[in-house]
Write a structure and sequence with these properties.
mainly alpha; globular
């Protein structure tokens, strides 16, 4: 069987622009979360982010005519509960840590996804990808710096967000075997809103007039970023698009410096570069194996992942 034809240059460019736009949206969401966290607790920011995100999503789903039928409601509930845990940890990190550090540690998620895929999906990971994962964790240690004066316990919350996000990624992989992407997004938000409301009620503070703006933008940027991200991956190669997501780091680092008087820590930059390199290799290797499976699976056994 011959290999599939490479995408046209116009398609590649469109995928790259969609991924860049998604990255900028997520960076802007981090900035609006930081502004909202000045007057609101993390639990409440998460609730409003989900509420405004669902309101932004509904017109798009209605226009597309997506089917919302599913037989996996218990799985969606579990996925959403873990996702809320990841969101709360991530939002807390964005609100309390330097933006560059919080975002850099979030890039460790693919490292934990690789481990989770071995545990839950039975994927085989060989020497080269395990080496990339270990190097990625070196980058995490460079940022967190345990046992030094630069260590803060808050950085562990950002790492916890990455771990939970990796579990969610595996669950989405399982859900997508049965349901369409739009169905997954809808039920995720439908559960997120009430699940995030429960903890928010215990710390409820009515937002100030200007805070409503930041909350609405957080929901819009978050939903927009997710939609752009999924559409980019439909058109382009993961290994080619993954490096573009790293543009979020300079965006939030510059914003932290200009808007919140944060310094750019050299340890964070060094650790982020190590994590980025590990992620780029993992994405490249997974794309290679996917192409190999597509071209050789019908005629011969596919080599295990490395």
């Amino acid at each position: 069987m011959t290999a599939p034809a490479p995408p046209a240059p116009a398609t590649v460019m469109r995928a790259a622009l969609l991924m860049l736009a998604s990255t900028l949206f997520f960076g802007l969401m981090a900035i609006t979360i930081r502004y909202a966290s000045r007057t609101l607790p993390t639990f409440e920011i998460a609730f409003w982010r989900n509420t405004f995100g669902l309101l932004a999503l509904l017109p798009l789903l209605l226009r597309s005519g997506a089917s919302l039928r599913t037989r996996q409601l218990p799985k969606y509930l579990l996925r959403s509960a873990i996702g809320i845990g990841s969101m709360l940890c991530s939002f807390w990190a964005i609100g309390h840590l330097p933006l560059s550090q919080a975002i850099s540690l979030s890039y460790s998620t693919p490292l934990f996804v690789t481990i989770a895929a071995v545990i839950w999906l039975g994927e085989v990971v060989r020497k080269r990808r395990w080496t990339a994962v270990l190097l990625g964790f070196v980058g995490v240690l460079v940022i967190v710096r345990p046992g030094t004066s630069g260590f803060t316990h808050g950085s562990l919350i950002a790492v916890a967000a990455a771990v939970l996000s990796a579990v969610v990624a595996i669950q989405i992989k399982q859900l997508s075997r049965v349901d369409a992407a739009d169905t997954i997004v809808f039920y995720t938000y439908a559960f997120w809103v009430p699940l995030s409301l429960l903890p928010a009620l215990f710390v409820w503070v009515w937002p100030e007039p200007t805070t409503w703006i930041w909350l609405a933008l957080t929901g819009l940027f978050g939903t927009g970023g997710q939609l752009l991200w999924t559409r980019a991956l439909r058109l382009g190669d993961v290994s080619a698009l993954t490096p573009i997501t790293f543009m979020q780091l300079p965006v939030v680092s510059v914003a932290g410096y200009l808007l919140f008087d944060e310094s750019i820590d050299r340890y964070t930059v060094a650790g982020a570069l190590i994590i980025f390199g590990a992620n780029a290799y993992i994405a490249h290797r997974e794309a290679q194996l996917a192409r190999r499976a597509a071209t050789t699976a019908p005629v011969e056994a596919v080599s295990p992942a490395e």
